[in-house]
Amino acid sequence: MTPLVSFLQAGVGGAADAGLPDGLLGYVLIIGVAIGAHEVWRWAGLLLGRDLDPASEIFVWVQHVANALVAALVVRLIAFPAGLLANIALEARLGATAIGLAVFCILGNKLGLGVAAAALALGVLSQITQ
User: Fold this and answer.
1) What is the pLDDT at residue 78?
2) Of 26, 32, 68, 114, which cross-links 15 as Cys (Cβ 3.0–4.6 Å)?
């Protein structure tokens, strides 16, 4: 078993069992490895992507796919809620979504205002529909 696997299996405070040094040095090693693994790809992306056009067809397609994924997640949260959201009536969830979307469209595509309006509406509507 590798030291990293045994460290992850040991859980919080299990650095000694994983063969990593105790104290600050163990944390410095973990953070150093994480930064080293991350920064390589960050710099590679910077170097490879500096001449790309963000308005190109591929980037527009990627943006549309990302928007579709977010929309699908929102629909999933409304139709099949989990946790505390499951205790709120479907009518309240649909109403809050409609109010948030209306605020977003009416106030000039301001995402923060739409989300805030939907959250406020969900709080109010959940109390009304109980």
Assistant:
1) 93
2) 26
Of the candidate ranges 12-21, 31-40, 45-54, 98-107, the one whose mean pLDDT is the lowest:
12-21
pLDDT digits (tens, 9 = 90+) for 58-115: 989 999 999 999 999 999 999 999 999 999 999 999 999 999 999 999 999 999 999 9
Residue keyed to tokens 């943006």: 63
